[in-house]
Design brief:
Elements (H helix, E strand, L loop, with lengths): L1 E7 L8 E7 L6 E11 L1 H7 L19 E8 L11 E4 L2 E3 L5 H4 L10 E2 L20 E5 L4 E2 L6 H4 L5 H11 L7 E5 L3 H12 L3 E6 L5 H7 L3 E4 L3 H5 L5 E6 L8 H4 L2 E9 L11 H5 L4 E4 L5 H14 L5 E5 L3 H9 L6 E5 L7
Parallel strand pairs: 10-11, 10-13, 11-12, 13-14, 14-15, 16-17
Antiparallel strand pairs: 1-2, 3-4, 3-8, 3-17, 4-5, 5-9, 6-7
The structure holds NADP nicotinamide-adenine-dinucleotide phosphate and zinc ion.
Length: about 350
């Protein structure tokens, strides 16, 4: 066991503060990683503030962070896929049971015994729960470690480990590609990755945003059209025309307005995870026999596939790199949708405080 520098919160309203957390000594199949960059996902904020209390209560102290890029500093003697010095990534999962039908189908994110990167019971007993990437190091089973394409900028690659796979997986399953009209709702961390990935898949991409200031950015990021979702005329102009819509919104909003934009047999997938239940009109689904689905990150093999896809297409996140000392300020801005489009923490800053 070693102690690692980290930032944690002690309760839903407390600010982040520097701390020290235990990291296990690598077992035979573990990879020890020096963390270089960690993205800030809105899920980190939901968890730090215990906004998902009814589904996944937060255990404090809490160290979030599941968009991790780093360098291998040690490997267990059974590790085959990685060596010291490799550049690697870790996303939202650090373990699963490896025996259930979902794991057998490379769907570790559906395993009933999956272990999340933070706020999951820690089977290794290093701490009561797992601690995430707002830290100088992490130790992870090699089966949950990803390879990072060499051509990608590391600070901007970290967000692919959650925002990238969370949008890639449903877009691929939604058969998004040439000839398809695809909507991306909410131009935040997930949404802006959704735009880049759907465009690279060849679709006609329409962004829905509540923020007029993001209109030009949406086009620069690859959108073919932008709709201000608070403008009913702009919304109505698209009624019944979408094959597929990906909803990346972090707060309460009217999803019926988007179901109305689907063509018959069209599908809307929720990846956003607002604190409160959403209201759904049955009629918005019945007419046109539309589908409403959800999606949670992706399996490990698919995450590697997404990273390789992003390497081939030169896709990374648009990031604002911050020192970890600016974490509380960054959370304040993230809560107000004031980030273009992902904060990425430069973990070198942790050495100084
Ligand atoms: P984010 O960067 O904060 O982006 C959320 C976007 O939603 C905002 O930029 C904003 O876009 C829009 N929005 C915010 N408040 C709104 C409101 N009241 N009404 C309408 N639109 C609003 O968050 P993120 O990191 O992309 O995460 C988005 C959601 O996905 C979070 O709930 C997160 O927990 C969840 N998530 C789910 C998974 C999964 O596996 N399913 C994985 C990661 C994250 P505009 O300014 O363009 O309107
Ligand atoms: Zn996330």
């Amino acid at each position: 066991m070693t102690q690692a520098k980290a930032y944690s919160v002690d309760n839903p309203t407390a600010p982040f503060k520097p701390t020290s957390i235990p990291r296990r000594t690598p077992t035979d199949r573990d990879v020890q990683i020096e963390i270089l960059f960690c993205g800030i996902c809105h899920s980190d904020l939901h968890t730090a503030r215990d906004e998902w209390h009814d589904v996944m209560p937060t255990v404090y102290p809490c160290v979030p962070g599941h968009e991790i890029v780093g360098r291998v500093t040690a490997v267990g003697k059974g590790v085959k896929s990685f060596k010291v010095g490799d550049t690697v990534g870790v996303g939202c999962l650090v373990d699963s049971d490896h025996t259930c039908p979902n794991c057998m189908a490379n769907l570790e994110q559906c395993c009933p015994n999956m272990v999340l990167t933070y706020n999951s019971p820690d089977a290794h007993g290093a701490a009561p729960v797992t601690y995430g990437g707002y830290s100088e190091s992490i130790v992870v089973d090699e089966r949950f470690v990803l390879s990072i394409p060499e051509n990608l900028d590391l600070a901007a690659t970290a967000p692919l480990l959650c925002a990238g796979i969370t949008t890639y997986s449903p877009l691929k399953r939604g058969d998004v590609g040439p000839g398809k009209k695809v909507g991306i709702v909410g131009l935040g961390g997930l949404g802006h990755m959704g735009v880049k990935i759907a465009k690279a898949m060849g679709a006609h991409v329409v962004v829905f945003t509540t923020s007029p200031s993001k209109k030009e950015d949406a086009l620069r990021l690859g959108a073919d059209e932008v709709v201000l979702s608070k403008n009913p005329d702009e919304m109505n102009a698209h009624a019944g025309t979408f094959n597929y819509i990906l909803d990346c919104v972090s707060a309460d909003h009217d999803i019926n307005a988007y179901l109305n934009l689907l063509m018959h047999d069209g599908e809307l997938t929720l990846v956003g995870a607002p604190e409160k239940p959403l209201q759904i009109s049955a009629f918005a689904l019945l007419f046109g026999r539309k589908k409403l689905s959800g999606s949670l990150i992706g399996g490990i093999a698919e995450t590697q596939e997404m990273l390789d896809f992003c390497g081939e297409h030169n896709i990374t996140a648009d990031v604002e790199v911050i020192p970890i000392q600016k974490l509380n300020e960054a959370y304040g801005r993230l809560a107000k949708s004031d980030v273009k489009y992902r904060f990425s923490i430069d973990m070198a800053s942790l050495k100084s405080g």
